[in-house]
Amino acid sequence: MTVPDTPLRLDTEEALAVHLSGLAQKDERLARAIARAGAVSLRTSPRGFEGMARIVCGQQLSVASARAIWGRVEALGAVRADAYLSFDEPTLRATGLSRSKYETIRGVAEAVSAGALDFDIIDDLPAEEAIAALTELKGVGPWTAEIYLLFCAGHPDIFPAGDLALQKAVAHAFELPELPPAKALIDIVSPWSPHRGAAALMFWRYFSVMKNSGAWDAL
């Protein structure tokens, strides 16, 4: 499969297939990991304020808990920046949002409403610039920014190196003696550009397959 010079946004299955093909050409170990992972699927969320708010809402919660809280936020109609700002703190906290999550989402909403944050621009920036812009927001760390860019913006070259599952998956696939910390993992995945987004999706799938097969007791 021919890999285009300009990396495709990860927003279709066809684009994902192109990126996985390019990734397999980078390293034989990656090709083997892709084969073991099996079918890799896109994981997409809405772009803009709603997508970022959903990610903040779900941090450090089970999928079920995050879905329930976000469902209550949706029921209020607080999925746009201006709508979120129209509700007071007690009303929004009653959905299950913690104080820190409420404040982080409010900060994002205020930045959008003031024109200081334009997701249409952020979504098309190079990875490092986009992450730097998003992490200027109080409460938004690198992982949050990276997850937004990968799942909401479909950024093709994002790899959340601080994610424990990704650290475990790469360590297993590459037969590393120990888990690589985030800084070391960034160096490992750097040569995979511009396909690091597809690599992240593939290694999350790899992690799940290895864990569920019982072949990886340490997980």
What does this structure look like?
It is a single chain. The protein is mainly α. The protein has two domains: 13-43 and 158-213, Orthogonal Bundle (Endonuclease Iii, domain 2), CATH 1.10.1670; 48-151, Hypothetical protein, domain 2 (Endonuclease III, domain 1, Orthogonal Bundle), CATH 1.10.340. The protein has 13 helices and no strands. The protein has helices at residues 13-24, 28-37, 48-58, 63-76, 81-85, 89-93, 99-113, 119-122, 127-134, 142-151, 164-173, 182-189, 196-213. It is globular.
CATH uppermost class of the largest domain: Mainly Alpha
Number of domains: 2
The major pleated sheet works out as: none
Rounded mean pLDDT is 92
Please bin the fraction of helical residues. Answer: 55-70%
Q: What ranges have pLDDT less than 50 throughout 5 or more consecutive residues?
A: none
CATH architecture of the largest domain: Orthogonal Bundle
CA(first)-CA(last) distance: 34 Å
DSSP strand content: under 5%
Looking at the structure, the CATH topology of the largest domain is Endonuclease III, domain 1
Shape: globular
Structural class: mainly alpha
SSE order: HHHHHHHHHHHHH
Name the CATH superfamily classification of the largest domain: Hypothetical protein, domain 2
Number of E-type strands? 0
Any idea what the radius of gyration is? 18 Å
- Helix run count: 13
In short:
It contains 13 helices and no strands. It has helices at residues 13-24, 28-37, 48-58, 63-76, 81-85, 89-93, 99-113, 119-122, 127-134, 142-151, 164-173, 182-189, 196-213.
